[in-house]
């Protein structure tokens, strides 16, 4: 399943360029603590979070995550989008709270690493 | 084999500078890629360096990061001027953090930074003097 497949099925908004949408998704990780994401996410994961400031791009790049998914309809800070373009990071957004969104992702077969 | 560095560069970073936070680590990552270091090793070095850099931004006044690459290893030294760490053993424990609420709101303060460095580097030494500063030295074998 690619980032594009998930974005279409769950009607997620695309906040960055269309580059990176063909990335294959390896699973998901949800956390709002950056170092926790660094410790536990896997390359190719979808990262579900409500953090919007520019450091999320550094984390997504360091861990080679497939995409960041912002919950609760959050919008990233302007400089986060600039940085996302530089690093070719993908940011999606959902109007749903984290719990509901993750439930839907799980139903689609996306799992965490346990 | 020689211990002569094939590459050595220094970067200056400033505490509280959230705009440039992470830049030194990004540059170091690009340098390692250019030298032809294995991607898996670059990933580990970049994570360890980023965590150390963010700790300087969050907790210290300024620092010098020195990157040395020899045929045997990547060595990264982060020497800061700041308040220092009173109990390094405690600071190394996963979950221990003195981050303020304001910092936590930005997603820092999991108390996972130093443990992440330890897990990604082959060796990590921390030397800290309260009131003076902290020096981290990490190495990853090639
Ligand atoms: N360079 C430093 N100077 C002074 N204190 C430091 C420094 N680095 C770490 N510390 C202290 O050690 C604690 C633990 O650091 P660590 O990086 O593990 O977690 P954190 O920075 O609090 O949270 P996280 O890294 O998960 O965002 C910090 O909260 C801080 O009190
Ligand atoms: Mg830290």
Record keyword descriptors for this entry:
heterodimer, A: 114 residues, alpha/beta, Udp-n-acetylmuramoylalanyl-d-glutamate--2,6- Diaminopimelate Ligase, Chain: A, domain 1, 5 strands, B: 142 residues, alpha+beta, Heat Shock Protein 90, 31% strand, globular, binds magnesium ion
Task: Write up this protein.
The complex is a heterodimer of chains A (114) and B (142). Chain A is α/β, with parallel strands linked by helices. Chain A has a single domain, classed as Udp-n-acetylmuramoylalanyl-d-glutamate--2,6- Diaminopimelate Ligase, Chain: A, domain 1 (3-Layer(aba) Sandwich), CATH 3.40.1390.20. Helix content of chain A is 37%, strand content 16%. Chain A has five helices and five strands, in the order αββαβαβαβα. Chain A has helices spanning 3-9, 34-40, 55-62, 78-87, 98-107, and strands at residues 13-14, 27-30, 45-49, 67-70, 91-93. In chain A, strand 4, helix 4 and strand 5 form a beta-alpha-beta unit. In chain A, helix 2 runs parallel beside helix 3 and helix 3 (55-62) packs parallel to helix 4. The model of chain A has no long low-confidence stretch (mean pLDDT 97). By secondary structure, chain B is α+β, with helices and mostly antiparallel strands. Chain B has one domain (7-141): Histidine kinase-like ATPase, C-terminal domain (Heat Shock Protein 90, 2-Layer Sandwich). Helices cover 36% and strands 31% of the residues of chain B. Chain B is built from five helices and five strands. Chain B has helices at 23-35, 39-59, 88-91, 101-105, 113-120, and strands spanning 7-14, 60-69, 73-82, 123-129, 133-141. In chain B, strands 1-2-3-5-4 form a five-stranded antiparallel β-sheet, with helices on one face. Chain B is globular, with a radius of gyration of 15 Å. In chain B, 39% of the residues are buried. The mean pLDDT of chain B is 96. Classes of the chains: A alpha/beta (114), B alpha+beta (142). Chain A binds chain B through residues 32-36, 38-39, 49, 51, 53-56, 58, 61-64, 79, and chain B through 18-19, 21-22, 25-26, 43, 46-47, 50-51, 54, 106-113, 115-116, 119.
